[in-house]
Amino acid sequence: MKFFKQEQLQGLFGQIIKRIMNALTHLAKTA
Asked: Which of 11, 14, 20, 28 sits at 20 to 30 Å (Cα–Cα) from 5?
């Protein structure tokens, strides 16, 4: 994984976490 820079990995995980949080909040609202 040394091909990736630390910043790129953090940005990628950040996007995934944002999507998961958005999905959870959406489910919580519709539930």
From this structure: 20
